[in-house]
Amino acid sequence: MSSNSLFETDEDVAQANKLSRKVRESPFMLVGIAGFVAAGLVGAYKYRNRGTMSTSVFLMQLRVAAQGTVVGCLTAGLAYTMAKEYLFHEEPKSNTRAGE
């Protein structure tokens, strides 16, 4: 183990690097994940005050809201990427690594 922590492995560091790279490449992915978590937290709070609604119907509506948030953020990210590439004529970054 090359890291200083007893509990952090090289694989954990690699996963953190991969996540940070993905966030730089696609910032709306992070917004989508945050929206998904926010929908879950709001749903957990509202679960207590759902009234006479059955649990299965409430969870179905919560799932649709969470998925809608993620799909909306992915769509916004795709529109941003397309606008950057085609309207502003910025070259997309190549996906090749320096060693290949």
TrEMBL record:
<feature type="domain" description="HIG1">
    <location>
        <begin position="1"/>
        <end position="92"/>
    </location>
</feature>
<keyword id="KW-0472">Membrane</keyword>
<dbReference type="InterPro" id="IPR007667">
    <property type="entry name" value="Hypoxia_induced_domain"/>
</dbReference>
<dbReference type="InterPro" id="IPR050355">
    <property type="entry name" value="RCF1"/>
</dbReference>
<keyword id="KW-0812">Transmembrane</keyword>
<dbReference type="GO" id="GO:0031966">
    <property type="term" value="C:mitochondrial membrane"/>
</dbReference>
<dbReference type="GO" id="GO:0097250">
    <property type="term" value="P:mitochondrial respirasome assembly"/>
</dbReference>
<dbReference type="Pfam" id="PF04588">
    <property type="entry name" value="HIG_1_N"/>
</dbReference>
<feature type="transmembrane region" description="Helical">
    <location>
        <begin position="28"/>
        <end position="45"/>
    </location>
</feature>
<keyword id="KW-1133">Transmembrane helix</keyword>
<keyword id="KW-0496">Mitochondrion</keyword>
<protein>
    <submittedName>
        <fullName>HIG1 domain family member 1C-like</fullName>
    </submittedName>
</protein>
